[in-house]
Automatic annotation (TrEMBL):
This is RNA polymerase sigma-70 factor, ECF subfamily. It comes from Ornithinimicrobium cerasi. The lineage of its organism: Bacteria, Bacillati, Actinomycetota, Actinomycetes, Micrococcales. The keyword tRNA processing does not apply. Keywords: DNA-binding, Sigma factor, Transcription, Transcription regulation. GO terms for molecular function: DNA binding; sigma factor activity. It holds the Pfam family Sigma70_r4_2. Belongs to the sigma-70 factor family. ECF subfamily.
Length: 181
């Protein structure tokens, strides 16, 4: 995944601000794979690159707002907004696209364990009984590995609020699972 930003030197940057193009290159290198995976799990395969690029373009524009030490949670939160906006956009499917499917694309990349879990009908059924909020909390924790402060930043909550949200989401998932078994 490659991303080039035109005009990477901003006249608004002060000489003391270290968040320049060099900072961004390291930032991108460190977090690009995680953001790419975030979208692979949630979006149409053909949209993943564009959505990832949009997150990093936003990060470049708002680099002064990225909290130090919590860069990845901030990116996940931004990615959730980008994905929500993307899903609200009307889409056009060409007739020629029917029948091509994504099966070829799915078999050509390595299988993500999260995809295997969500391919399980019982897990999908239990997850479908949860609110979108609970699913988001569980996926950020299980798929993206966030907890504590990172989860709090991604959800826009306090650490205690994030812990409570995770606990409630787990309990609801457990109840949904138990209802089916």
């Amino acid at each position: 995944m490659a991303l080039r930003l035109a005009g990477s030197e901003s006249p608004a940057m002060s000489g003391t601000d270290l968040r320049d193009a060099t900072w961004f290159d390291g930032f991108f290198a460190q977090h690009a794979t995680a953001i790419h995976r975030y979208f692979v799990r949630r979006a149409n395969h053909s949209d993943v690159e564009d959505l990832s690029a949009e997150v990093f373009a936003t990060a470049w524009r708002r680099r002064d707002k990225v909290p130090e030490g919590f860069e990845l949670p901030w990116l996940y939160k931004t990615a959730s907004f980008v994905l929500a906006n993307h899903r609200r956009k009307p889409t056009l499917t060409l007739i020629a696209d029917y029948g091509t499917g994504e099966e070829g694309a799915r078999t050509s990349r390595s299988v993500d364990p999260a995809e295997l879990v969500m391919a399980d009908d019982e897990v999908r059924r239990a997850m479908s009984k949860l609110s979108a909020r609970d699913r988001t909390v569980l996926m950020l924790h299980a798929w993206e590995g966030l907890d504590g402060e990172g989860l709090a930043h991604a959800l826009g909550l306090t650490r205690g609020g994030a812990a409570a949200a995770l606990s409630r989401a787990r309990a609801r998932l457990r109840n949904a699972w138990d209802d089916d078994h």
